[in-house]
Amino acid sequence: MSDAALITPIQAAVRAQPKALGPLQVRDLTLRFGETTVLDDLALDLGTSGCTMIMGSNGAGKSLLLKLLHGLMQPTSGRINWGSQAPCEVTARQALVFQKPVLLRRSVAANIDFVLKSRGKDKARRHRLLDHVGLSHKADQPARLLSGGEAQRLALARALATDPEVLFLDEPTASLDPASVLAIESIVNEARSRGVRIVFVTHDVGQARRIADDVVFLHRGRVAEHSAAADFFPEPQSEAARNYLNGRIVV
Ligand SMILES: Nc1ncnc2c1ncn2[C@@H]1O[C@H](COP(=O)(O)OP(=O)(O)OP(=O)(O)O)[C@@H](O)[C@H]1O
C-alpha cells in the first residue's frame, strides 16, 4: 500500500492548510541606495498577533521597512523570517494598504470582484465586504469618484478580500477627517480581533495610543525602542522617542 493511502481525510485536510505564519524575526537588516544607508543593521522581533505601530520621524525608514517585510523589496544584506519562511514566500498571505489607495479605474464592485477572482475566492463575498466598510450603496459608482476616506475604505476591503494573515498599513488615515479615521480604525480593530496581525505606520500619536499593542520606534534606520504601548506613551525609553512625542524636531 502506498503512503498516500495511509493518510486519513483529517490528516489530508490539516496538510492542505498552510501553517499560520510564525513570529517575525529580523536580523542585521541593511538597505542602501548607493552610498546612502537608510536601514542600518536593524533587528526586530514581532509576535504572532496584535497591532504593532511603527513610528518615527520623516525619512526614518518606516515605509521601506514595510516593503521589505512584505517581500516587495530585497535588502542589501540581512535576514527577515516569518517563522521559517522568507518574505517573498508569504507575500500572497499578506496585504499592504498604502497612504494613497491604489484602485482600478472601474466600479467599486469591480474593484472587489477583481481581487476575489484573482485569488479564487467566492464572488458572493463582495456584498459582505462592501457592507463591512460601509460602501454597499456605492457599489456601482466609479471608484475614481470616491472621496479620500471612501477610497481608503475600499482599499481596505480589497486587502481584506485576500484574507491576509498580516495586514500592513502605511499611513492609511493621513489625510482623512476624524470620522473617517475612526471608521478605518474600527475596521482594523475588527480584523485584529479575528486574528489578523496588524503592522501599522502612523504619525498620529492619538491613533497609536488608541490601537497599538506595541510600538516600534525607528530612528536613523534602526529600532531605537520597541515597547508595549502601555509603557511607550507614558515613559518612552529613548531620547529620540521622547523628543518625537514632545513635538521636538528629531534628526
Ligand atoms: N529609491 C530610493 N533611493 C534613494 N533613497 C530613497 C529611496 N527610497 C527611499 N529613500 C530614502 O530612504 C529614507 C527612508 O524612506 P521611507 O519612505 O522609508 O521613510 P519614512 O520613515 O516612511 O518617512 P515618512 O514618515 O516621511 O513617510 C528617506 O530618506 C528616503 O528619501
UniProtKB/TrEMBL annotation:
SMART domains reported for this sequence: AAA
Pfam families found in the cross-reference section: ABC_tran (PF00005)
Keyword list, A-Z: ATP-binding, Nucleotide-binding, Transport
Domain ABC transporter residues, every copy: 24-245
Tree of life domain: Bacteria
Record carries keyword ATP-binding: yes
Keyword Nucleotide-binding: yes
GO molecular function annotations of the record: ATP binding; ATP hydrolysis activity
Protein name: Tungstate transport system ATP-binding protein
Organism, as annotated: Primorskyibacter flagellatus
